[in-house]
Every structure is written in structure tokens, then in C-alpha cells.
Structure prediction request, 849 residues.
Amino acid sequence: MSSPIALLPDAQLRPLLDAYEASVRSRRWHTLLILACVAVAMVLSSISAEVSIPKLLDNIHRFPSYIIRLFQLENGRPVWTDVAEWFWGLPRWLRLLGETLLMAYVGTVLGVIGAFVLSFLAAANVAPSRWLRWTVRRFCEICRTVPELVFALVFVIAFGLGPVAGVLAVAIHTVGALGKLFAEVVENIDMKPVEGIIAGGSSWPVAMRFGALPQTMSNFVSYALLRFEINVRSTAVMGFVGAGGIGQDLIEAIRKFYYSDVSAILVLIIITVSVIDTLTSHVRHRLIGLQEKH
Amino acid sequence: MLRLEGVTKSFGGKRAVDQVSLVVPTGQLVGVIGRSGAGKSTLLRMINRLGDPTQGRILFGDTDITQLKGRALRQWRARCAMIFQQFNLAGRLDVLNNVMMGRAFHVPTSRALLKLWSDDEKAQALSALESLDMARLAGQRADTLSGGQQQRVAIARALVQEPDIILADEPIASLDPRNTKVVMDALLHINKHFGITVVCNLHSLDLARSYCDRLVGMAAGRVVFDDVPAALTDAVARDLYGLEAGEVVGEAPPVLMPVGARPGFALAGS
Amino acid sequence: MPGHFPVDLDAVRGRHSEHFQRFGRRRQTALAIAAAAFALLIFAIGELGFFDGKLLAGLGRLAEITGLMLPPDPKDWAHVRLFSSALLETIAISLLGTLAAAALALPLAFLAARNVTAQRVVRFFSRRSLDTIRSVDILVWALIWVNVVGLGPFAGALAIMTADIGTFGKLFSEAIEAADRKPVEGIVSAGGGKFLGVRFGIIPEVFPVLVSQVLYFFESNTRSASIIGIVGAGGIGLYLAEAIRTLELQQTSFIILMILVSVALIDYVSGQLRFAVIGRRGVVS
Ligand SMILES: Nc1ncnc2c1ncn2[C@@H]1O[C@H](COP(=O)(O)OP(=O)(O)OP(=O)(O)O)[C@@H](O)[C@H]1O
Ligand SMILES: [Mg+2]
Prediction:
């Protein structure tokens, strides 16, 4: 069978080929320029971050050996040969893990309440006043940008060592993060019900309660659940600065090279986080399903 | 020669294609018609092996297509070009690279991954594009083209495969009247001049009648009509599409007769 | 208004019983959940020591501390220079960690994506390991890397990289799974193999999405990088923790202000770049 393509004569092909090469060339320059920028940024960063590949290569074997060491008992045997010895501190760790979960829970709830109120003040479509909206937005931004641990450090000075500082730090960060997301949810609602209620002579809170709230509830809950999972992860390290939870035992174990304790605590945290991840995403999917049905 | 023997495809319990047996001689332009859901796309996809039949055999010459695996399967796909309703181009790649995908089987993978096409390959692709009046746009991104232009790129991709057979799954369903004519004329040209077998799913009976050598009508997965276009009377067509006796085939535009197929509208797009 | 519109309530209830009941039951469940949540909250607050009497005193002290933080003041130029270079180091850590994580996460993401990897086992294990990496906090990774490469920003960059491999792996694989399968089908139908399908059918399409996610995380990683100094992994965190511990409160607020400004700046720049890459309407999710 003959080829279905009649090859063009060279005279006709040349200009087409040249035109194509020209268009490719300009794109290629563009790509190279971007790559060059990234490369320069990386080199500068490497200098600043004291990256040294030789040092990494010299030490990289210590990473796997450290990980392997984590899974060895004092006597050098693998941890699973004596699970009771591995998890010797289980009662205490479980208590601290429980405390961590409670901290995450309270921090999330307080944060959700704060974000809930602020979101209606910060949403462009329903906010009662402009300057209030601006202030609330900046406030959320600060709460969100300053890392939780920094709040925790400050709160530990004010409230003393212990979970109260950690809870408040998590709560404040949650207000900032959820305040923004909630406000976006409120901005996306259908305004007709709200206008209808306001037109009926009701006050702003009433209009929010019956006009806006029903439309936002399932999204709020979904975001709150997502945040709870994130907060469990971050309360687990609050103890690093003395703000309660299992983190204090974890950092002590790491610092003092109690290898098998480190892995035991990490295993507990990972299991907890995965269970919560599974549960919350299950509930969230059901919520989304519910929302689509209506 | 393409031969289908009792080809069946079930999705769950449902038979999308049911005991289809056909013989398509080399060089024929076959139109496959039938209402939506009749199993036309499923049939074509099985011939290209984008889907595997649940039962039955597909033979090309002496080769059993349904048994092919690995490299031999890819070789068959290279010989059996496919054109899609939605064009199936890589939108963010430029036109020439999209056409080059038609050489995918012949170019060593390592070279293809780096887009290192040889001058001969580029010349081939550009010539194929030029035959469809598209070579000027070789450097443009595919998703910036109009539907008709994209389909012409897809045809160029099929051409550089140097295929033995072209399968076209409603190639004109998302095109305007003018592009419909361009695309159908291109397929006709490929078929008549190079003797390449073309199997083409169509929704427009008028186009099917005027372009095809033979029409295969499907309903509920089965072949219910197989003859020359002249044998497709209005009564048969009504039957095929499950219309009431009073309805005239020509008056059911969305299924039977796109605007472009009506006389007098043919040049509306130009 | 009885009389105007006579309603035979029992008859209505009889005819639409499911309506009356379901509504009631849903409402009851909601109330029960709310009550349980509230009870748990009260219990937790008690358990965590909120009622120990420290709260009020603490709030007073917090107000005092906040007052002492104002106005932000670095003390002298030497400190400004010190903090600035530490801040640059923080940004460098974040940039390196983010880019390295993206590079390493990409192959993993393909292994974890349903439309690329057919083997369930491979997919399961790559997903699980990504989840495991994700559930360990960045500070823990920082401590581990400090043990491997010693104190300093290098350990910080490695920590950000490790923690982000999990996140990027998950996000990337979701983006890959969301990719249109038509281009891949087009390439496969022409005789192209798996690699070609991925290289030309998927990568060009998802690349802008991935770039946008990386840019987005560059900003949030700068925030994380500003605290890993607390465990000795470089950046401004060290000075921040130091300033808080030694109650140099005006310096503390100055450092926080510097972080806020630089994060806002990076947010702005990365936002502009993201728009340039994916267009105004594309939002990272
Ligand atoms: N991947 C799939 N999974 C389940 N069912 C499928 C699948 N693909 C096709 N089907 C079913 O098989 C039947 C035939 O579909 P097919 O796409 O082949 O019809 P068609 O004749 O091409 O219709 P149209 O003209 O609308 O394109 C339909 O009922 C469809 O629902
Ligand atoms: Mg179809």
C-alpha cells in the first residue's frame, strides 16, 4: 500500500520547516529563561542555606541507619521482637495522646466559633460595614500567618507551661485559617433569601441566621472537620515548646536518643492521625453527598 | 480484509455490542449508523483494541487482533488509525508534536520522549498537514485551534501512521457545515486515492448515503442493516432509529440531519 | 390563622408522614450531636486545666505582654542586619525544600495515580507511604535531619523537603487523576506506549496545575521555615524563640512583623506567578 502522504518538494517544505523552528525557538528561549531564573534562585538559596552536597553524601547513610536505629530496642534487637518492651510507656503515652486530641478538639471548636462569627463580618456580600470588614480580614491574616508555635511560645509565658497555651495557640490559628475559608463560603451564597428577609424588615443577625446560615452550614462543617485533622497533627508538636500534649515526650525522646520510644510515639501519632483522617473524610464525603442530593 | 466474528462486549450485565459479524474488504468506505447507544463507538474501539471484546474474534488478514499483546498490539494500533469525535489531541502541545504522535510506534521511545524528531519525520508531518491546509499552524498550540482545525490535525496524525485502516468515530459531530465537508472529503480522498479502508460512525444519514460505499446499521448492539446506501429507504431508516410511522426522517434534525447536510445550507459556514 | 384555611392536620400528617417524621428525626440527630459536642467541650476544658484559675491571670499577663510588644523595635541596626539575613535564610530554606520536594514527589505521584498505575499493590503502598510521611510534623522531620546532617539551615531545607513530599505526592496524584484521559487515548490509539501517553498526554496538561501548587506551598513553607529554627534547623526561628524566651518583646514583635511582611510579599508574587501560569480562574484546591 502506498503512503497516503505526498512528500512536499524541498522548496515548499523549507519555509514551513523554518517557520516552525522559529516558533519553537522563541518558546524554547522563554523556557530557558525561566529555568535560568529558577537555577539562579536555587544556587543563591543553596549558598544561604549552607547546602553542601559532599556533607549530605557523607552523612546520608546516617538517615537510613537512624531510621533503622529507631526500630531497635536498647539491646539492639528489632522492636517487634518484644512489643511490650517497645511500648513500655503505653499508658502514659495514651494519656498524653488523649490530651493531645482534647487539645485539638477544644482548639478547633473555639477557633470554629471565632471564625464563624468573623466570617459574616468579613464576607463582602453581607458584611455590615466596610471598615469592620477590613479590620476583620487583617486580623484573620495575622492569625493565619504567625505560626502556631510562635503563639504557643508567647502563651506559655502568659499562661504557664501546659495545655492551655497550646489550645489557645491552635484556636487563634484556626480562627485565621477558617475565617478566610468561611468568608469565602459566605461570599458564594445565593443572596436572594437574605434580601428577602431584610426586605421583610428583619435585623442583620436574623437575616444571617435564616437567609445565609442554612446555605453555608455543610461547607462550614466540612472545613471544620478538615481543620480538626490538621490541628491534631500540629497539637502533637505543641509539647516541643511546653504547651502540652504528647510532643513533650516526643522531643525528650528524640533529644535524649531514646530511639525505640521515638518510633513508638511516632507510630501512635501516625495511627491516630490516619484514623482521624479516614473518619473525617468519610463524614465529609457523606456531607457533600447529602448536599448534592438536596 | 477486516473480519469480525461474533464480537460481543458486555458492560456489567449489559451487552453494548452483541454478536456482531462483519467482513470489510480492503479499500471499502463503510459507514456505521444507528441511534445513540447502539454500540457504534464500542465496536470501533474494540477494533483498535482500546476495549477488549468479551466474546468473539477480530481478524485482520490472518492476524487475530484480539490475541495481540505488548509490542505487537502497539504495532496493530499503529496500522489502525483512529479519529475521535472530540479529536483527542494533547491540547497544550503544538500541532506538529501532536501529529508526531502518529509516529509513536516507529520512533524509539527514548528519542520520542525528548521530542527529538528527525528531519524526515518532520517533513512527513508537515506534508501531511499541508495536504489538509494546516502546515502554517504547525507551531501553534492545539487547544488554540478551532474544532475543524483540530480534527484536521487528528487526520494528519492518522495519515503519518501510514495506516492500513482508519476508524473514525463520529469525526464531524462537533463541526460546522464547512468543516464537515472538509473532513469528509479528506476521508473520501484517503480512501479513494490510497485504497485505505475507512470505517466511519455517522449520525447524518445524508452524509452516510453520499460518502459511503456501504452502510451498516446497528440497534441495541446488533447489526440490523448491511447493504449499499441505496437500499436504505426511509422506511428502513425510520425502523433503525425507532421513529413513528408518521415522522419523516428528514425532519428529525438532531439525530438524522444536521443543518449542514441540508441542501442550501452547505455553504453557510464559508 | 385558624378558620381562614381549614387544615386537617392529622390527614396531612397521615398522607405525608415521611415528611413530618424525617424532618423531626434529622433535627433530633443534629441536636443530639450538638449536645454531645458541647458536653465533650466542657469536659475537655475542665480536663485541660482551663478552670484552674490560671486563665484570668494569664489573660491579664497576655494583655501586658501585648502592650510591651508595642511598638516593634529591633533595638539597633546590627540586629536588623542579623534578622534580615536570617529571614533570607528562611526563604532560601523554603525555596530549596519546596523545589526538591516537588522533584521527588512527581514520580511518586505517578505511582499513586489510578489512571497511570494499574497495579493496585503499588498504588496502595505509594499512597500509604505518602500518608505516613504527611502525618509526621515538619518539626519532627527537622529534628531527625538535625541528627543526620547536624544543626543548621541545611537540615531545615531537608525537613521541608521530606514533609512536603507527602503533601505534594497526594496533591499531584489527585491532579494527575483529574487529567482528561482523551489525549492519552489519542496517543495510545496511534500505537504509543505507556511512557509516551504519560509524557505527552498527561504531563503537559497537569504541569501548570502542579506549578501553581508548588508556588502556593512556597508561601506556606516560608511560614513553616520561620519556626524550624526553634529546633536548631536554621532560619529566623532561632532568633524569634530566643527573643521570646529572654522577654525581648519589642524585638519579638519586630521579627513577627518581618515575617508577616515577607510572607505577604511572597504570597503576592507567587499569586501573580500562579495567575500567569494557569490564568485568573484557576484556583489551587
Ligand atoms: N465504559 C462503559 N461502561 C459502561 N457502559 C458503557 C461503557 N461504554 C459504553 N457503554 C454503554 O454501551 C452502550 C453503547 O455505547 P456506545 O458509546 O458504543 O454507543 P454509540 O452507538 O456510540 O452512541 P452515540 O451515538 O451516542 O455515540 C451504551 O448503552 C453505553 O451506555
Ligand atoms: Mg459514540
